[in-house]
Amino acid sequence: MSVLLAQPLAAGHPGFLSPSGVEIVFVLVGIVTLGAALVTVATRQLVHAALWLVVALGGIAVEYLLLTAEFIAWVQVLIYVGSVVVLILFGLMLTKAPIGRSPDADSGNRWIALAVSLAAATTLVTVVVDAFRSTWINVQEPTGPGSGSSEVTGTALFRHWVLPFEVLSVLLLAALVGAIVLSKRNKAGER
Amino acid sequence: MHLAYPAVLAVLLFCVGLYGVLARRNAILVLMAVELMLNAVNLNLVAFDVWLRDTLHAGQALTLFTIAIAAAEIGIGLAIVLLVHRNRGSSDIDRLRDLRESGGPPGGDSSGGSRDEKSVAPATDNDADNDAESGSDQQVQGPAAGRRHA
Question: What HAMAP family does the record tag this protein with (chain B) (predicted)?
């Protein structure tokens, strides 16, 4: 099936040895993203971890742009970089996170975690590369709005995905109420 | 573009997040690693949506839903972490062991009624006597310290 799909899309099957410009940019941004993610999970300074998370999430937004998903990219910038990281920074501040290096940022089972994640990475990379070795994405858009523009995404969202969208609003309301209830201070005599 | 590039990047990001979830001690750092894992899944969804040219745009719609759910998750998660920090004085997930199964200290589980009052004290009331002698050493070998009691 993948061959059938790839045949009309990729004209002449470009090879690994002649990467296109989009692929080169994708790999470079991917390396930056991966490095930022590694620093995020490895650094001992908590605030630096949150700031490197901004770099990783921004890199993923650029990858969305390269994959022609423009609307998702801007939503990613708005929600992740704009609000989630700010929430995390506030959380670090409110839990009195140490500013400098904290020696106990990593747990004692770090080496087990490293072994588990390396094993998972090896297995998954092997499987994924083997599965999609001859599969190509056509990122060249025909004329008109691309498949990731806000017009197309909005049409699909409000035509086919209206019910999940509305359910999602209820979920967000429940999360809002839950967060307020959880963080409300109890009265002194209540406990 | 070769589909292997976004797929491999998503796999590697997911495994980096997996390492962060397993290896970190601070609860907020664990939440950051969870965000990395969710972003890896989102990257996969977008890549496969672009590859399959789905007429319903299921991949991108699902990515939007995942982003919204992740925002809700981080809000609730941070509220819980703040509550734990307020009650226990620490957000180290290695020390939050009130719900662990028996096999720990014999006195810890039987005195369940009085633990509510004691839980305001900063954590590891199970190993309070160990704290005095081993200090930060006890954090490195947290599980071993509990085993010594048994």
Answer: NDH1_NuoK
Predicted pLDDT at B105: 55
pLDDT value at B138 more than 80: no
CA–CA distance, A32 with A39 (Å, rounded to integer) = 11
pLDDT tens per residue, range B58-85: 899 999 999 999 999 999 999 999 998 8
Residues contacting residue B54 through CB under 8 Å, at least 6 positions apart: none
Domain boundaries, chain B: 4-88
Q: Rounding to the nearest 10 degrees, give the CA dihedral for residues A52, A54, A59, A62.
A: -160
ipTM: 0.84
- β partners of residue B26: B92
In the prediction, which pLDDT does B103 show?
66
To the nearest whole angstrom, how far is the Cα of A132 from the nearest Cα of chain B?
Answer: 6
pLDDT under 70: residue ranges of chain A = 1-18, 141-145, 186-191
CB atoms within 10 A of CB A168: 16
* Distances, alpha carbon B22 to alpha carbons B31, B94, B103, in Å: 11, 11, 22
Q: Do A50 and B32 touch (CB under 8 A)?
A: yes
CA distance A45 to A52: 11
- As its CATH architecture, domain A2-140 has Up-down Bundle (1.20)
- Tell me if the domain spanning B4-88 has CATH number 3.40.1190.20: no
Inter-chain touch A147–B92, beta carbons under 8 Å: no
A177 φ, ψ (degrees, to nearest 5): -65, -40
Answer whether B11's CB lies under 8 Å from B40's CB. Answer: yes
d(CA A41, CA B19): 7
Contact residues, chain A, for B1 at CB < 8 Å: 20, 22-23, 26, 66-67, 136-137, 139
With CB atoms and an 8 Å threshold, state whether B51 touches A137.
yes
Token pair recorded at residue A123: 């297995």
B92: helix, strand or coil: strand
Give the distance from residue B138's alpha carbon to the nearest chain A alpha carbon, in angstroms. 10
